[in-house]
Amino acid sequence: MSLVLNSLSKRFGAIQALDGISFTVEPGQVFGFLGANGAGKTTTMRIVLDILRPDSGTVTWRGRPAHELPRRTWGYLPEERGLYPRMKVLDQLVFFAALYGVPAAEATRRVRDWLARFRIPEYADRRAEELSRGNQQKIQFIAAILHDPDVLLMDEPFVGLDPVNVALLKEAFIELRDLGKTLVLSTHQMEMVEELCESIVIIDRGRIVVSGPVGEVKRASGRRVVRLGVAGDPALAWLADLDGVRVIRSGRDYTELYVEAGRDPGSILRAALARGEEVTRFEIADPSIEQIFIERVGAAPREETTLAAAPGPTPVSEGR
Amino acid sequence: MSPVPVALRNILVVARREYLWRLRSRSFQLATLVLVVVAAGVALSPILLRFVNERIAPVDRLGIYVDEAAPTVDVVTALDRLLNVPDPGAVVAAGGTGVGAGAARRSFIVVAVDDLEAGRADVVAGRLAGVLALERTPDGDLGFVLYSRYLPFDRRTQQIQQAAGTLTIQDRLARVGIPPGNQALLFAPAPFETRPAGPTDARTGSSEQLIGGTVLGFALTILIFMAIVLYGQWVAMSVAEEKSSRVMEIVLAAARPTELMSGKVVGVGALGLTQYVLVVAAALVAIVFQDRIAAALLGGGGSIDLPSGLSIPLLAAFGVFFVLGFGLYATLYAGVASLVSRQEDVNQAIGPLMIVATLGYLIASYASSGVIPIDSPLVVILSLVPFLSPYIMLSRLALGQVAPWEPVLAVVLLILSVGGALWVAGRLYAAGVLLYGQRPGLRSLVRAVRAR
């Protein structure tokens, strides 16, 4: 009953874009699909959508191979944003919907509803090129959901949106989830992942490095995060001498540290008090997804060349 | 839903967008309007030229000074008839339509002049365009001197000279004793016909039919060539626009590449055909009605015959070759265009295909004009080759020198190639998404086809 990706591999020339990607997305979930740019997120999504064929591996949704399913099963917001620049917003949305078999009248009604929800009803008769980037993005989101798909694949849906629009989009996601839709979203905004996603996968260079429900992923790291604030001594140099403790970040008011699994976080507080420090803040937390990401992928989410711009494919093995 | 209706639906949805989107564009409407006017204008240009000549050009007064030449005919009346060449439709015009008197159509008003010196003074003063003085040469022939403001190579000078020549011959015949009624018989043209030498020659028709076939072959191949060059480019541009605006990935998620490709070719092709039909219709209407237009403008007119040999089977063959030929080229244009990243690069990328298209057209026109014998083995073989058959087979059909199996084979091969082109172009289109930012080249082309 779920979306199952089973050992997907895909090679473009010298680059092994995907190297045995397997994960499962439960229906009705918001699923975080994370990875640095170039890690293989877009390639994976394209394979699910049958825009690309994998060299090996399968994708199934509710037990049926993805490429046998009607296209209206999927809604896709690509990373490469694009609309017909000189076509009116309503016209092109109705066109996209028609490709999925939605009658024009019904599509028009839905477009008007969504434009109103996104507070841009007056843009229906504007040409796409007249819209700001953020508004174009909202139009694209509408294009992805007009045909009422079961599974939504969203590649970086929040990039370039202001906080108000981010909130609008988030609201829409939650509503779609409540309607029973399955959402797979890739994003570099980790706070969104914390807020929206029930499960995540982190991939790095075509391999899965982390996967599971968010809570489990956090616990599985075995680590705790401690935030310690001490009056008059923001540097807390003495922490470096403690075993199983690593400073992540020195802030103005407090310092954030990793405490390894074998060490009791409470011992940090006791150590501080034993030194006679005046503790202004002490907090024990799970590591954030961002911290797990940085630790496992090795660097913060970074902007670099995407696979789309990588060298063209060479015939290593025939796709079909 | 079963897959076939979905594919068909998507093709129609894409075709509809392409058709309506371009149809509504200001530039298309303007271009079509201009083309329609130009086509009608070109078709009517002979009449318009005559109209300008006869109606707007000033009527010249020509003085005739006969003196003692004593010709056998009334010179003023004869010259008036010879210089103002009667129109076949003049009677219709005078009787039917309200065009007014025939006098308005004259190039010359011929008047008698009694005094040569006074006449010449009138020419200098501008009251007469010229004075034609007749005399008898010592051997008894009529001689002419034209005093006028015309330059020696003026068309009117030549007209007068021709009329004078005719007058002289009539005068000579009359002096030999042949009455004017028999003179008409003397000038009647001889019956003349060309026929093929061999009894089994496929050319069955008369020379007129052969000329008609050649003209038809020319016209039909030009129509196909222009459609490929103009509208094929639209398809390519449309694909490049989708790629450069990055909307490609959205539509690729919604429909299969071959559906998108076919829809584009069908939509743009239909639009091209619309423009075509309008333009050709304008020209045809102009040609068909040119008698009446001529009658309205000039009070009469010579009809231009449509090329003979325009038969229903030939028109059907034209339709088939037009659609398949355009489909083949447009599909490949679209495939190649999906490899370029910017619209500016489209022309460069489709260049090689354009050369093939031009080559086919040139061979066809050489063959139908006889520069290359149309029944030479080379032409016969080339007329079966898919990229060339729309032109060459059509030319051969127009000249009626084809065994029945030949066009059938050509069409079958064409259909197979269109299918192959769709497959290749679909893969190129799908792969184009992966090739943003790359220059088109044979390597990336081959890779792209094999990638998916």
Structure description:
The complex is a heterodimer of chains A (320) and B (452). Chain A is α/β, with parallel strands linked by helices and 320 residues long. Chain A folds into two domains: 3-218, P-loop containing nucleotide triphosphate hydrolases (Rossmann fold); 222-286, Alpha-Beta Plaits (2-Layer Sandwich). Chain A contains nine helices and 14 strands. In chain A, the strands form three sheets. Chain A has a six-stranded mixed beta sheet with strand order 6-7-8-3-9-10, with helices on both faces. In chain A, strands 2-1-4-5 form a four-stranded antiparallel beta sheet, with helices on one face. Chain A has a four-stranded antiparallel beta sheet with strand order 12-13-11-14, with helices on one face. The radius of gyration of chain A is 23 Å and the shape is globular. The two termini of chain A are 26 Å apart. Chain B is mostly helical and 452 residues long. Chain B folds into two domains: 3-45 and 206-451, no CATH class; 59-179, D-Maltodextrin-Binding Protein, domain 2. In chain B, 65% of the residues lie in helices and 6% in strands. Chain B is built from 17 helices and four strands. Chain B has a four-stranded mixed beta sheet, with helices on both faces. The longest helix of chain B is centred in the middle third of the chain and has 38 residues, at 207-244. Chain B is elongated. The two termini of chain B are 25 Å apart. Mean pLDDT of chain B is 77; it is low at 87-104, 200-204 and 300-307. Chain A binds chain B through residues 12, 46, 49, 51-53, 70-71, 74, 76, 78, 80-85, 87, 95-96, 98-101, 140, 143, 308-309, 312-315, 318-320, and chain B through 1, 6, 9-10, 13-14, 17, 21, 241-242, 245-255, 430-431, 433-438, 444, 447-448, 450-452.
